[in-house]
Amino acid sequence: MHAPMTQFTVAGRHLQVGGVPVSQLVARVGKTPFYAYDRRMIADRIAQLRAVLPTPIRLHYAIKANPMPAVVQYLSGLGDGLDVASLQEMNTALDTGMPGNHISFSGPGKTDVELKGAVASGVIVNLESEGEMERIARLGEQLSIRPLVSIRINPDFELKYSGMQMGGSAKVFGVDLERLPEMANRAAQLDLDLLGFHIFNGSQNLRAEAIVDAQNRTFCLIDTLLEQVSCKLRWLNIGGGFGIPYFPGESHLKVEPIATNLASLLDHYPWAKKTEIVLELGRYLVGEAGIYICRVVDKKVSRGVTYLVTDGGMHHNLAASGNLGQVIRKNYPVVAVEKMGESPLEEVTIVGPLCTPLDVIAHQVQLPRMGTGDLIGVLQSGAYGYSASPTAFLGHPPAGEILV
Ligand SMILES: *Cc1c(COP(=O)(O)O)cnc(C)c1O
Questions:
Q1: 146-177 burial string, b = 16+ CB within 10 Å, else e?
Q2: What is the pLDDT of residues 7-60, one digit of tens each?
Q3: Worst-scoring range by mean pLDDT, 8-17, 90-99, 201-210, 337-346?
Q4: Which atom of ligand 1 approaches the CA of 203 most closely?
Q5: Which of 44, 121, 213, 373 sits 20 to 30 Å CA-CA off 207?
Q6: Residue 380: closest CA among 365, 368, 362, 397
Q7: For 289-318, how does the pLDDT look when each residue is reduced to its tens digit (9 = 90+)?
């Protein structure tokens, strides 16, 4: 069973996004498939977080989760900053009017062009290596601008139960903790403005206690580090990792214990009161606000299995097909958007139009009886959806994208 997905309202038999029935949204877009994102849900998420988190905690949006410019623009007005991972994302972020020093730029392999763009815009660069530090110092000299930097730390612990681990052992992300003191000294020699540090351990975590544990270790690690390095800490990005339920058996993350623990960490460490502490969230802010709508093009039965073949599939929503890092394929929640709550149910396998058996949207699910022309919605599609999909694969038309 999937966790209850009640984020969208239902009127009669019709699912609504942003209070508008999906069939009306089809008319607005003029085609299927498309993604629709509900702005009220995004705003509610931020408001819920703000209500429980200690006030000094800054909320950043990691825009790779959903880089649609309208979404980024909207979130720029709700959050405190944006996190980017490429020059294009950086420019999407700057276009919103967000000041450069509220934008941070992470990711391995930043080119000189990217680093120069960041320095010129006053964006905080999360250094991923010593080499990157040497290059940004040179580029800063060329531009006569003192680069704002933070060092991303590859810690000596892992975020437990995370969907994707990004710390603890040999990693391309960040600099090994034991090399930090030397690197911070070098940053001072190079006259870089070292604001602080960044630790991001992993993603898609649904267990509050694991996130609490990682945050405790992060604060403890920084406390020890501050005894060894000459850095007046002004900025600390503690990552995020907040997950959303995608698959049967998963439930919503409880944020209250995380918020309570953060409040006591702020109390406990004197330096924390003088530091801007950033929580960077991607999917938690937008994932549940998005739905991918596609239309049944064909219905066929093969050896007892009823297939609904749709115009949408893995070329637009790779993650829902299970091909974006899933080891064992599981179903995203799917709904019959114009037949909500209708019976009888029928067991169907929903597939896309691509000539590959990998193009599965939902395997053996119970849905109201549907046929050609009916609309299907894939929930939990607001993050790592369209921009994380191989849109050119097989040359089908692009999907629409709207913010409602
Ligand atoms: C991708 C990424 C995020 C966002 O991850 P989510 O799982 O979407 O919250 C945050 N920080 C960094 C550094 C990232 O690379």
A1: ebbbbbbbbbebbbbbbbeebbeeebebbbeb
A2: 999 999 999 999 999 999 999 999 999 999 999 999 999 999 999 999 999 999
A3: 201-210
A4: 7
A5: 44
A6: 362
A7: 999 999 999 999 999 999 999 999 999 999
Q: Which of 203, 284, 380 to mutate to test the pocket of ligand 1 (most atoms within 8 A of CB)?
A: 203
Q: What is the DSSP letter of 373?
A: T
Residue with the two structure tokens 């040359």: 395
Report the residue among 61, 83, 152, 201 best suited for mutation to probe ligand 1: largest number of ligand atoms under 8 A from its CB: 83
Q: What is the pLDDT of residue 159?
A: 61
Q: What is the mean pLDDT of the chain?
A: 95
Pairing type for strands 400-403 and 34-37 reads parallel
Token pair recorded at residue 286? 């937008």
Q: Which residue, by CA, sits nearest to atom 9 of ligand 1?
A: 282
Res 5 pLDDT > 90? no
Q: pLDDT above 70 covers what percent of the chain?
A: 97
What per-residue confidence (pLDDT) applies to 404? 98
| Distance separating alpha carbons of residues 204 and 360, to the nearest angstrom | 22
Residue from 253, 280, 284, 380 whose mutation best tests the ligand 1 pocket (most atoms within 8 A of CB): 280
Task: Give the span between the Cα atoms of 285 and 282, in whole angstroms.
Answer: 6
Is ligand 1 within 6 A of the CB of residue 150? no
Helices vs. strands in the chain: H and E counts, helices first: 10, 22
* Ligand 1 neighbour 286 (Cβ under 6 A): no
Residue nearest atom 8 of ligand 1, based on CA coordinates = 282
203 lines ligand 1 (CB under 6 A): yes
